[in-house]
């Protein structure tokens, strides 16, 4: 009888974990479908931790951290301090820290 109760408890725990995983998965899929990015942004399933900004339009050192379901500036654009993606050429010259000479 104790063994049956223990087995049922394990089964209940397994079912609970399974249900929670299904809820998490469905909410993640819903978020990915419903997520809309702004102008000049692209949705990345596994985005970078090193998005181009006006302060650093050409990041050199970057970790390989995957940020799930993130909007990043499109190629040739950088994140302005106001949060919008603008052409790198329109970044304020005082704000741009140009690292292109280090990129090979």
TrEMBL record:
Gene3D superfamilies: Laminin. InterPro entries: Ser_inhib-like_sf (IPR036084), SerProtInhib-TIL_Domain (IPR051368), TIL_dom (IPR002919). GO terms for molecular function: peptidase inhibitor activity. It comes from the Eukaryota. Keywords: Disulfide bond, Protease inhibitor, Signal. The keyword Nucleus does not apply. Residues 37-91 form the TIL domain. Residues 1-29 form the signal peptide. This is Putative til domain protein.
């Amino acid at each position: 009888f104790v063994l049956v109760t223990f087995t049922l408890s394990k089964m209940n725990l397994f079912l609970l974990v399974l249900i929670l995983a299904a809820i998490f998965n469905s909410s993640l899929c819903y978020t990915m479908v419903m997520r809309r990015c702004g102008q000049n942004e692209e949705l990345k399933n596994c985005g970078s931790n090193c998005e181009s900004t006006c302060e650093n339009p050409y990041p050199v050192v970057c970790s390989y951290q995957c940020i799930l379901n993130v909007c990043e500036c499109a190629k040739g654009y950088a994140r302005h301090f106001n949060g919008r993606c603008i052409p790198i050429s329109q970044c304020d010259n005082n704000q741009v820290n140009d690292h292109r000479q280090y990129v090979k």
